[in-house]
Amino acid sequence: MEIGVLALQGAFIEHEMMLEKLGVSVREIRQKKDLDSQLDGLIIPGGESTVMGKLLVDLDLVDSLNEKIGKGLPAFGTCAGLILLAKEVDGKPGLLGTMNISAKRNAYGRQSGSFVATEVFAYKRSVLMTFIRAPYIESVDHSVEILARVDGNIVAARENNILVTAFHPELDGDTFVHEYFLDIVKKYIESQKNEA
Amino acid sequence: MSNERNELNKQLAQMLKGGVIMDVTTPEQAKIAQAAGACAVMALERIPADIRSAGGVSRMSDPAMIKSIQDAVTIPVMAKCRIGHFMEAKVLEAIDIDYIDESEVLSPADDKYHIDKNGFSTPFVCGARDLGEALRRVAEGATMIRTKGEPGTGDVVQAVRHMRLINSQIRLVQNMRKDELFEAAKEFQVPLDLLCFVHANGKLPVVNFAAGGIATPADAALMMHLGAQGVFVGSGIFKSGNPQKRAEAIVNAVTNYQDARLVAELSTDLGEAMVGINEDEIKIIMEQRGL
């Protein structure tokens, strides 16, 4: 199993450390050529969504990523990653736009609004959720499963192969959400084998 | 400041990693910076090169000017206060700034004491020339460090010197025997627990950016190779011939600093770089402010 971590800007090393803790190989994606050989999953980390969006365009990565995710490649976006994957952001089209959700950027305001909460994730168990100048999900299509809410706002969701969280599971040492993503990846690998 | 707030503030700096923080003086410049891929902007009335040439006392910017920049962009907005001027810091906190830079670029308000940053919920970034300065600022509550460099010169030599020194001192501490740390804490004039963190982890307890004199994509890539986790560009962008193009090129160079061929492309046809002043030609040495 090899997971790509988009390493253009932001907290990508933190995701890599979580994956290494779980014994998974990691490939940093900085340019188009990094996508040449096969990947089993992709993580889009937290950071500044405008920066990553700009670099995705400059480095001509948008179409390649969309094609892969469209074909079923498991993708996991945290915070800025959620914004990039959302179909709609603050009423405008999202950059990758592969997931049928509508996101609100900086939904909790500036840094003074950043906070920590503990809520149940995916009806399984409570996890610590760190929100840094975070977005939340304003609305979702029927095809989207809501995985967590904080104060009534949607902060984690899944649509088929795409998982997003408004919080940062890579920051708190708990690998639970990453393990949930790796389950999606494992099923994807199995389905690929069956097709072959 | 609660532990939780301290963690959140360190974590915001983690989100800025691999990015470029740009000095801006107007909402128009802030928009250009954001469109070019800045991960945050530093709102200030005069960029360091102009502070240097204007002389006189340099202070916190007008809150109205900072607010106009907050309204213009969605990325984090930082602003500078004078070293030791906790009242300027409180003003910046009151206008909900995302990060305060207690900065040697402005005239120091206190030649002995830095701000007790632990008393604030707003995060602080501070400059450092060596490991001792860096850990003293962290002890005072800074949740992000940057090299001091020599701002407003376009000369990268001091930023290089500071980044190399901090990282070589980290390696030195990392390789010490545990029983040598007590003496080392005295020599570095830092709290023992912070030095123990460096010994165990081989890095600062907070994110460390490069700042001061960075003017080209190659400068930025150089600093990333030397261990910077991102860069501040002050005068280098809006004192150059084509700010937008240069800003974009520096952002791209920070992401792909390991690819010299790409940095070569990015360095092509950027127009004139800021003129720059050499280290031995300047009268005010900002790096010696606040040790």
Give an account of the 3D structure.
The complex is a heterodimer of chains A (196) and B (291). Chain A has one domain: Rossmann fold (3-Layer(aba) Sandwich). With 196 residues, chain A is of the alpha/beta class. In chain A, 28% of the residues lie in helices and 34% in strands. The two termini of chain A are 17 Å apart. The longest helix of chain A is centred in the C-terminal third of the chain and has 20 residues, at 176-195. Chain A has a seven-stranded mixed beta sheet. The mean pLDDT of chain A is 97. Chain A contains five helices and 13 strands. Chain B has 291 residues and is α/β, with parallel strands linked by helices. In chain B, 44% of the residues lie in helices and 12% in strands. Chain B has 13 helices and eight strands. Chain B has an eight-stranded parallel beta sheet, sandwiched between helices. In chain B, α2 packs parallel to α12 (243-255). Chain B starts with a helix and ends in a 25-residue tail after the last helix. The A-B interface holds A 7-14, 30-31, 46-48, 50-51, 54-55, 58-59, 79-80, 105-106, 109-112, 114-116, 130, 132-133, 168, 171 and B 4, 7-9, 11-12, 14-19, 34-40, 70, 74-76, 96-99, 121-123, 248, 251-252, 254-256, 259, 262.
